[in-house]
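Record 1 of the preview.
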Amino acid sequence: MSPKSKKIIMNFKTRLASEYLKAGGVISHPTDTIQGLSCLPRFEHSMHRLLKIKQRSAAKGLILLASDARYLEDYVAYVSQLKSIKNTDVPTTYLLKASSKISKLLMGEFSTVAIRLTDNTLIAELCKATNSALVSSSANTTGKHSATSVLNLNVFFKGELDFMIAPKNYNNSPSRIINLETGESLR
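->
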């Protein structure tokens, strides 16, 4: 298949994925680190569904991925803190004081929200198409490795996902996690 054909197919898949997200769906797609599951944070029912599909405790919270800090402003208590976050060579998730208006599903049992800025092209296209940050979690069930193939996705999630963009041939390490207020490195 020619590079032009691959690009056309990927653009179609990205548009389709964004339509599922805007309709409240849960999808799987490659991220800047590992294969992920995503939904939009404005849909509480979608976050519940994502947690159920993953068999993940709501107490753990979820990550917000975005290509631009403006997509994260409604979720943090102090928007000015977003200015100190930069894209780095090492994907880094930051814990910031959460806005009092956000879903408890994003925070879990914490007073912080986990956010990651990325220049990943697919994430940027999905954020732009949905005008939103993406709720993100690894594409696995609790205690398992992240999916590395469509077969893994089908085995792990047994048709529960609304749409899938196939994993890359590899999965990187999960992002590091840093509490922005304390500087503490958690992973």
